[in-house]
Design goal:
The complex is a heterodimer. Chain A is mainly alpha-helical. Chain A has two domains: about 110 residues, RNA polymerase sigma factor, region 2, helix turn helix motif (Rna Polymerase Sigma Factor, Chain: A, Orthogonal Bundle); about 80 residues, Winged helix-like DNA-binding domain superfamily/Winged helix DNA-binding domain (Arc Repressor Mutant, subunit A). By secondary structure, chain B is mainly alpha-helical. Chain B contains ten helices and no strands. In chain B, helix 3 packs across helix 4. Classes of the chains: A mainly alpha, B mainly alpha.
Amino acid sequence: MPDFKVTDEELIARFQEGEERAFNEIVFRYKDRLLNFVYRFLNDIDKAEDLVQDTFLKVYTHKHSYQEIAKFSTWLYTIAGNLARTELRKLKRRKTYSISDLSYDNKEYEIPLIDNPESQIESSDFSQNLQKAMNLLPPDFKTMVILRDIQELSYEDISKIVGVPIGTVKSRINRGRLKLQSMLKH
Amino acid sequence: MNCYNFEANISAYIDGELNQSDWKGFTEHQQNCTACKSKLKGVRELLGNMKTIPEVTTSDDFFKGLQRKIETHENRSSIIAKIVEFKPFGMNPLQALGFAAVVTFMVISSFMLFNTDRLPVVHFDELSRENQLNVPAGLPEQSAYPQQNPAMMASDHNQADSTKDKNHGNAPNYDNQMQLVNQQGRP
């Protein structure tokens, strides 16, 4: 049974001292939260799960890198966010290569580029629509909106995770919300 | 407050972070501008809907997969550790590598010094003679290898000097060649 009386910081301290059970407890607490964060970012459940495992592997192998100057959750989300951004970059690069590698015949099956990306969203399901709209946001905006509106983290925590001032976080979240609202309206 | 400022303050208004004067300006603008009012409504709906989207959960194999990754990492680390900890003849890897490099150098250099039997002997005199014989047909030897026939070079030099003397000093004599060109140029 998970012991929620013990704080995250106490758990990581125990793990740093060699208590393996504390690591399992950390994994149990954060696996689904991180999966939701990474899944909304990548839109691929298998890759997202793989990445969450990699995040915990990093915690396991770099446990002594954490110092109690920041919240443990902030550290964890920073690792997951960095891995997710790297993965997104790789996916984009691969996508670019695969499209440029297509022969003339294959180009018939390419998805046509639409000038207005907002009109790409036609699905009726809100969750799917939201996901599609999210994918059109720049990575920084997407990260911040997910962390604030889906993960419900504070502006201060988001600022530490993404490494930008709180004012920038607030303005980007506001602009991200307006953009999403505009895309979903069409 | 104008529409631009209204848009910029929507999240702050929702979060209750506007000060009194900004809040007043915001609500006044909202009452007078239907486009901005609709935007605010849209953002509020979006935030409400975002809280209702279904959450995803990890698969049953999540812990197994993580365990496998940790084991793989630990095995790899132990192999690296073994390599680092490997001490041939009580030396650390860097010393051992240096020792091996010195031994290899000594073996190769001793082989080159003492085992000269199989090395080819080059006779440079014969090579230069062959080069002289290999002058292409039709070319005077001195033009190809002027340095090898100093006597001929000297005679050429004398010839050139005598021509110079005949033609008032500096310019060489081209009379013969000019005549030849004139003859060829005639119809």
